Amino acid sequence: MVQFNYDASDISIRDDLAESYRQVWATVGRPGNWWSAHDRVAIAQESRNARTCALCTGRKSALSPYGDDGHHDSTTNLPGAAIDAVHRVTTDPARIKRDWIRDLSASGVSDAHYVELLGVVVAVISIDAFNRAMGLALEPLPEAADGAPDQYRPPGAKDQGAFVDMVAPADLTVTEADLYGGNPQTGNVLAAMSLVPDSVRMLTTLSGTQYLTMHEVPNPTTNGGRALTRSQIELTAGRVSSLSDCFY
Question: Could you give the CA distance from residue 89 to residue 126 in angstroms, rounded to a whole number?
Fold first, then answer.
């Protein structure tokens, strides 16, 4: 079965969108730097579970999301701290605090584990939201490949005042030299997940087809060949960001 086959859709969907989703799905189904492929697919499943989780619904409406330590509606064998992280990132990301991320390490979820988890969740939310918007069923999650995580941590990762360490363009090594497209500067929206290079790669793959490539974004005169004008693209992006409580 071909993944992300949109031939039956009533709406014409660009081939590059489907291809980018296939690339990301393949990455989700491979071992990462800190999680096995089976764990990564489980993270993806928990992100879907979070949308109907009773605990998450209660936390979302509470004055503080840190007062209720109940049990999530979970269907995987991930560690409890990882399940909680996935559900919080999915349902209430705007209220995540630096201290909470630091406390995850004491529960066995290091900063790098967290960033890799975040990358998978962001990818799944993005792709699932597209399918929902098109009135299509969600794509079955990828099959998990065998193998162990390689535990690679970019040597240039440093504390730059964010919640987790990041890699500046000047500190990239050959292994992750592609992350910012050769640009001497980059925005924190990309660098935020640079502790796990594949998380950035998945993000740029998706943003390059769902929005604009990193080289097109700074040029206000281009719309990337889309059907919308650049002004329409930015208005839509701004509205979606506002609805998603995105401080960027």
Answer: 13
Amino acid at 246: C
Q: How many CB atoms lie within 10 A of CB 113?
A: 24
Tokens of 219: 């040029």
Angstrom distance (rounded) from CA 157 to CA 155: 6
In sequence order, the 6+-apart residues with CB closer than 8 A to the CB of 45 are 75, 76, 141
What pLDDT is attached to residue 1? 67
Residue 123's identity, in one-letter code, is: A
Q: What is the pLDDT of residues 154-212, one digit of tens each?
A: 999 999 999 999 999 999 999 999 999 998 999 898 899 999 999 999 999 999 999 99
Domain borders along the chain are 15-150+198-210
Per-residue CA distances from 225 to 213, 218, 228 (Å): 11, 15, 8
Which CB contacts under 8 angstroms, 24+ apart, belong to 143-146? 143/29, 143/41, 144/29, 144/36, 144/37, 144/38, 144/40, 144/41, 145/29, 145/30, 145/31, 145/37, 146/31, 146/37
Do residues 32 and 136 touch, judged by C-beta distance below 8 A?
A: no
Q: Which of 196, 105, 117 is nearest to 151 (CA)?
A: 196
Q: Quote the crossing angle between the two packed helices 15-28 and 37-50, to the nearest 10°.
A: 120
Nearest to 87 by CA among 51, 130, 111, 131: 51
Query: What does pTM read for this prediction?
Result: 0.95
SS (H, E, C) 169-215: HHHCCHHHCCCCCCCCCCCHHHHCCCCCHHHHHHHHHHHHHHCCCCC
The whole-angstrom separation of Cα 149 and Cα 132 is: 32
